[in-house]
Write a structure and sequence with these properties.
By secondary structure, the chain is α+β, with helices and mostly antiparallel strands. It is built from three helices and ten strands, in the order βαββββββαββαβ.
């Protein structure tokens, strides 16, 4: 576990109520009920003045929501960086977790192992890990992906369509999200043929 020393002071509930969304704070680094004996960088989920009863909710940079009563002696409280404060241990943001969906043409066990070992060589054997693996046969087809208004008229001309992406494999569609108020239309891919006469 990577931690670093930081100088900070504990805030009272009154001081926390004056904070905004942009103010960096430190709260308990507890994750999924796992108590960690250090703090994590965080931000309030809404301006401090909007909370009532002295209870505040903060979200750490690791995505955990923490509910804190700053004035409670039994809780670890909310801290803010202050050179005149005391030293606390802060959990570092050591990296980024990537959830990858990989398409391997003509994929077999050897090619997957080669891909895995190459990633380990690039980032380090202790860094790259396969948490779960789903091997699915993917048809080698392409589709055209369109967006159109969610409440579009039936039989409307295709003029109001907004082409979102071209030549996309259908398995990738499930990892995309349509724009607000729009929906996806997936159609078999049609090659663009330029029939402009040439001399």
């Amino acid at each position: 576990m990577n931690t670093e020393k930081a100088t900070a002071r504990r805030l009272t509930a009154e001081e926390v109520s004056e904070l905004g969304l942009q103010d960096g704070i430190f709260v308990s680094a507890e994750m999924d009920g796992l108590p960690l004996d250090c703090y994590a960088p965080a931000f309030l989920t809404e301006p401090g003045k909007n909370f009532e009863g002295g209870s505040f909710t903060a979200k750490t940079i690791f995505g955990e929501e923490i509910h804190v009563l700053p004035d409670s002696a039994e809780e670890r409280g909310i801290w803010v960086a202050d050179k005149a404060g005391e030293e606390i241990e802060v959990l570092q943001s050591a990296g980024v977790l990537l959830n990858l969906a990989l398409f391997v043409p003509n994929g077999n066990k050897e090619s997957l192992e080669s891909l895995y070992s190459t990633a380990r060589d690039a980032f380090g054997a202790g860094i790259v890990q396969r948490w779960s693996e789903e091997v699915v046969a993917v048809p080698d087809v392409k589709v055209d992906l369109f967006e159109e208004p969610a409440r579009g008229r039936k039989n409307a001309s295709s003029q109001n369509r907004d082409r979102r992406a071209l030549d996309i494999y259908p398995t990738r569609v499930r990892f995309l999200e349509p724009s607000d108020g729009w929906r996806f239309i997936v159609e078999p891919h049609k090659e663009v043929v330029d029939d402009t006469p040439t001399i």
